[in-house]
Design goal:
The structure is a single chain. A six-stranded mixed β-sheet has the order 5-2-1-6-7-8. It is built from eight helices and eight strands; from the N terminus they run βαβββαααβαβαβαβα. The two termini are about 25 Å apart. Helix 2 packs antiparallel against helix 3 and helix 3 crosses helix 7. The radius of gyration is 18 Å and the shape is globular.
Length: about 240
């Protein structure tokens, strides 16, 4: 059984959904420290005047605060601003209404933590592309697993009955691969395909919000989500 663990991200790039497409269980890792400048509450969009950020405003938060403790600022204009930015970027795209509907589907609460909001953004996209049919989504708070770093990741995978852990490139800096092997769990790294699709405003880049793919390709965009992986030993030695 394949397990993927990731911090939630706000309508992230297509590579995140390549990982989800491989997961039997996907764990939203929301009880770890929020990092300023991360993609937890922001993502880029291509526009006529270059790349721009869609950023969800946050209430004052302290250093070391967990993702699921950081609250979205209770102002009413951030979603209309994001919709306006989508319109500026993608108003001529054939399925822009689908992208706008996904953004409109986000919850509107007076108090909402950014981990929950970004998790919902990812789940809405998964439902749109049908990626939720074969994947079970779990929040880390549903699991009674302590510890930190590589050991905690291993215990999470074991608690879910996983036989294969699929991770992004950052895992090479902290995972104890031999410990996973000793536990009978394979570790594979993503080999992101970055499959091109029709895109406005200059050369293609995959490093934009998944909403760009939705707006340009609609439900057929799922055919551009083509996951591949590399076993950890080969990945480390490349």
């Amino acid at each position: 059984m394949n397990v993927v663990i990731s911090q939630p991200m706000y309508f992230p790039w297509v590579g995140m959904f390549e990982q989800i497409a491989l997961a039997d269980v996907f764990v939203f890792y929301t009880d770890v420290q929020y990092s300023k400048g991360s993609f937890t509450n922001r993502v880029q969009i291509k526009t006529r005047t270059g790349m721009k950020w869609m950023t969800v405003p946050l209430q004052n938060h302290r250093l070391g605060q967990r993702i699921d403790e950081v609250l979205v600022k209770s102002v009413s204009d951030w979603k209309p601003r994001h919709l306006a930015l989508l319109s500026e970027s993608l108003d001529q795209a054939p399925f822009v209404a689908d992208a706008e509907a996904l953004l409109q589907a986000l919850p509107e609460f007076d108090t909402c933590n950014v981990g929950y909001l970004s998790s919902v953004s990812m789940l809405e996209v998964c439902r749109y592309f049908g990626l939720d049919r074969e994947t079970r989504f779990v929040n880390i708070n549903e699991l009674d697993v302590g510890g930190a770093g590589s050991e905690r990741v291993l215990q999470i995978v074991k608690s879910l009955g996983g036989s294969r852990y699929i991770t992004g490139e950052g895992g090479r800096h902290y995972l104890d691969h031999e410990a996973f092997e000793a536990a009978g769990i394979a570790v594979d790294y993503m080999n992101y395909q970055r499959s091109p699709y029709p895109q406005f405003f200059g050369p293609f880049t995959p490093f934009v919000s998944i909403l760009d793919l939705v707006a340009q390709c609609g439900h057929a965009g799922v055919h551009h989500i083509n996951p591949e992986t590399t076993p950890w030993r080969r990945f480390i030695n490349e």
